[in-house]
Design goal:
The structure is a single chain. By secondary structure, this protein is an alpha/beta fold. The protein has a single domain, classed as Glucose-6-phosphate isomerase like protein, domain 1 (Rossmann fold, 3-Layer(aba) Sandwich). Helix content is 53%, strand content 11%. The protein contains nine helices and five strands; from the N terminus they run H-H-E-H-E-H-H-E-H-E-H-E-H-H. Helix 3 links the parallel strand 1 and strand 2. The protein is globular and about 55 Å long. The termini are far apart.
């Protein structure tokens, strides 16, 4: 059965929106994160990648890419479901990332990278676990980077460099942010300041 005219119209609309947002991406912020992560690697620091929901999936995928392609020591607390759920059950969801980072001895040579639509907001009780992790990072002088979808979230307000995916289309901020966050991190791991290992298919041309 051929697609309906309405679905075809939506498909084109969504793709047109994506193009508009990509054209408006803050390239200077992306380059700043690349420069910061290159310094992190050269200094022997570690990268901790945080995200909730779909962004937790992004975190695990990005850990693989930063480790394998960029040779950065990287971790995501959400990759260890046993510890994540134990801490949530015993200590509470809001503290789960901060306590994990304490056990990992987060320090001044390390950095946090946040994937989040809103970036965390304590007043609205949204992603407070991200807020508490970033508060710990500030106390310990760790660098903070973010890829988020709204200005004014906690990540954007405290980050050393933050890519705000321009929220040009209010009805679809979440899908555009999560989709383009993947574009941005794949850009980062391909960035000449960071990339060290050729990806498989490109190496077999």
């Amino acid at each position: 059965m051929p697609p309906s005219e309405a679905s075809m119209t939506f498909t084109q609309t969504y793709l047109d929106e994506t193009i508009d947002i990509i054209k408006a991406l803050p390239t200077a912020s992306i380059d700043a994160i690349a420069k910061g992560l290159a310094h992190l690697r050269d200094a022997g620091g570690r990268l901790f990648i945080l995200g909730v929901g779909g962004s937790a999936g992004h975190a695990g995928h990005a850990v693989n890419d930063f480790r394998k392609i960029c040779e950065i020591e990287a971790y995501a607390p959400t990759d260890n479901v046993s510890e994540l759920t134990a801490r949530t059950n015993d200590e509470g969801w809001e503290s789960v990332f901060a306590e994990w980072l304490k056990t990992s001895r987060l320090g001044s040579k390390d950095a946090i990278l946040v994937f989040s639509v809103g970036g965390g907001n304590r007043d609205k009780s949204i992603s407070v676990n991200l807020v508490r992790a970033l508060e710990l990072a500030r106390v310990r002088d760790a660098r903070i980077y973010g890829i988020v979808g709204r200005n004014g979230g906690f990540t954007d307000s405290v980050a050393d460099a933050c890519v705000v995916i321009p929220p040009l289309y209010e009805d679809r901020v979440t899908p555009h942010t999560e989709g383009l966050a993947a574009v941005v991190w794949h850009l980062l791991v391909s960035h000449p300041a960071l990339k060290r290992v050729q990806t498989t298919w490109e190496s077999r041309r």
